[in-house]
Amino acid sequence: MDRPEAPDPEAPDPASGGRRGGGRRIRVDHPLEAVDRRHVFAELRAGLTETPCRIPSKYFYDDLGSDLFERITEQPEYYPTRAEAALLREIADDVVSRTGARELVEIGSGAATKTRILLDAMERAGQLHLYVPMDVSEGTVRRAARELVERYPTLSVHGVVGDFMAHLGQIPDPDERLVIFLGGTIGNLEPATARSFLRSLGSQMHAGEHLLLGVDRIKDPAVLEAAYNDAAGVTAAFNLNVLTVVNRLTGSDFDVASFRHRAPWNAEKHRIEMWLVAETAQRVRLPALELELDVAAGEAILTEISTKYDRVLAASLLDDSGFGMERWYTGSEGLFGLCLAVRR
Ligand code: SAH
Ligand code: TRP
Q1: Strand 177-181 vs strand 156-161: parallel, antiparallel, or unpaired?
Q2: Residue ranges in the chain whose pLDDT is less than 70
Q3: I need a surface site. Which of 11, 123, 212, 268 has the fewest CB within 10 A?
Q4: Contact 321 CB / ligand 1 (< 6 Å)
């Protein structure tokens, strides 16, 4: 994979709604398109036949789910986005000068709002060339690409619509990249999966390249539980939407209205767990999976984990995965942690 292609400059730019200009600086690859439906069905079947039942969290993020997630980040109880943004403002210039990065690669980029704090710092340093957002949500990758080429005149965007557990090999490989993985999304992976993910990310990086990893910190469980149980019910709607996505993908008949959102703190595993609890017993038919599930009243599906870290846990995660922690930033608030790590 190389730099963004420069197609015919006269051609209308589909990515900017037919207007000319920014599209010449946008390229989007879509490895997810080639994924066979049978693979999706097998993955969902594997999760739904585990005990407890699980649904892989990437299925949260259809267009509605991605919008709901953006609304979660605006809820007063959901502090991580604001805390990470404040911390990024404190450290962005330091990170850019330490890494010398000219290219920014972002895994699970979403709306790429906080990303702008780093892009601004790279622009100030005269180092802003390429941004590579990778996300399963096609709409968010395309929207971020359009907005960012408009905002930064020297920037090209090479988006990858893909699964970070499967398609890291699609990340382009120019020089002096900084890879970022924000939002505490690493905490959404089981510890062993987080390690294998970071190892394969490292295998796509050169020795000496940097990773900026965002982790939410262990804190008062009441603060954590409130962040995942906002009073306006946006997190509940987000959690329940995953059943609508599964119904649409598989032709299943989960009775979405009979499930309730629960997000308790699990102290032993230092994580918030997102559950959907069935209020009434039901038989769910999933024809595409050749599966019928008997769900008892009170039975629950585990839809997400959000593991919280401290410095020691983050350092051992990185160390086990081929990275060395160079800086641990927590900023004046101390709510959130950013690790600047170097690929050994
Ligand atoms: N980085 C943003 C978004 C975090 S939410 C922030 O900090 O606010 C997690 C993001 O990861 C979503 O945009 C979701 O679409 C994406 N995502 C989840 N699982 C993924 C997977 N397996 N592969 C690629 N992207 C994934
Ligand atoms: N990465 C986010 C986090 O762990 C994802 C998230 C926030 C989430 N709220 C959620 C996932 C609610 C599922 C349900 O904080």
Answers
A1: unpaired
A2: 1-23
A3: 268
A4: no
Task: For CATH 3.40.50.150, list the domain ranges present in the chain.
Answer: 26-33+81-219+310-343
Structure tokens at 151: 């905002």
122 close to 151: Cβ distance less than 8 angstroms: no
- Round to whole Å and give the CA distance between 275 and 166: 25
Ligand 1 centroid to residue 164 C-alpha, Å: 9
Q: What is the pTM of this model?
A: 0.94
How far is it, in rounded angstroms, from Cα 101 to Cα 94? 11
- How far, in Å, is the centroid of ligand 2 from the Cα of 283? 28
Q: 26-33+81-219+310-343, which class in CATH?
A: alpha beta
Residue 126 to residue 148: CA distance in whole angstroms:
16
The SS3 call for residue 200 is helix
Q: How far apart are CA 338 and CA 327, in angstroms?
A: 8
Q: Whose CA is nearest to atom 9 of ligand 1?
A: 108
309 within ligand 1 shell (Cβ under 6 A): no
**Ligand with smallest separation from the Cα of 108:** 1
**In testing the pocket of ligand 2, which one of 54, 109, 188, 269 has its CB within 8 Å of the most ligand atoms?**
188
SS3 274: strand
